[in-house]
Specification:
The protein is of the alpha+beta class. It contains 11 helices and 8 strands.
Length: 225
């Protein structure tokens, strides 16, 4: 069974009215507690685990609790809280919980990324910014500049616009994949924190004055869904 994370995220968000969605986008920490009775609390900095999409955890409780790292940017914290809210919505969704598949095959992490990005970045804004037929890194940067959303949320929104299987990677100059958003048809995922090597486009672009690199590349640390 093939799960569409974008469609499932939209279905989950249809349960929330527009006013509440606006409140979630403006101040997720307060809105999540008020609207869903989920405690939101900071946690101390700790080692990031590979494969985890965000700097937070969800505990179904009772009472349900979201813990978010306090050593990251505010935009990243908002994305994290909304990502973990996605886990809360999944926890209480009969349709997803009745599927005869594992959580990995259900693609919970991808669904939660889509929940966070959909709340933070309105579809009409994505339509206005990502109008080019060919998606490039500068378009993702333009989307970030047009919104208060995190870089991770912008990667998720941009990955939806890919015309072929692939991914949008948020990386460091040393070639490490910090966060990766995948097109629906991509049959693999890249684990968080995976070094892509000196031959990667991330590494090459960071060392060129133009900050651009175009070539065939190989992704490291990928695994099947």
């Amino acid at each position: 069974m093939r799960i569409d994370p974008t469609a499932e995220a939209q279905r989950l968000l249809e349960q929330i009215d527009d006013i509440d969605l606006d409140e979630l986008a403006a101040d997720p920490a307060i809105a999540v507690e008020v609207l869903f009775d989920v405690v939101v609390t900071p946690r101390q900095p700790q080692m990031r685990s590979e494969g985890c999409a965000v700097d937070g955890t969800y505990d179904p409780g009772p009472p349900p609790c979201i813990r978010v790292a306090d050593d990251v940017a505010a935009s990243r914290q908002r994305f994290t809280i909304l990502h973990e809210l996605g886990h809360h919505l999944i926890e209480h969704d009969a349709h997803l919980n009745d599927l005869p598949i594992s959580d990995a095959d259900r693609r919970d992490e991808a669904i939660c990324n889509e929940v966070a990005a959909s709340v933070l970045i309105p579809a009409d804004l994505v339509d206005r910014v990502l109008i080019s037929g060919v998606l490039e890194a500068e378009h993702v940067a333009a989307l970030k500049n047009a919104t208060w959303a995190s870089r991770e949320a912008c990667c998720v929104a941009a990955a939806r616009r890919l015309r072929v299987p692939g991914c949008v990677i948020l990386g460091r100059p040393d070639g490490t994949a910090v966060f990766t958003a995948h097109h629906l048809a991509t049959p693999w995922s890249i684990a968080r924190g995976t070094p892509q090597g000196r031959d990667s486009l991330l590494y090459k672009a960071a060392r060129r004055r133009s900050r651009r690199a175009r070539d065939v590349t190989r992704c490291s640390g990928h695994r099947g869904w």
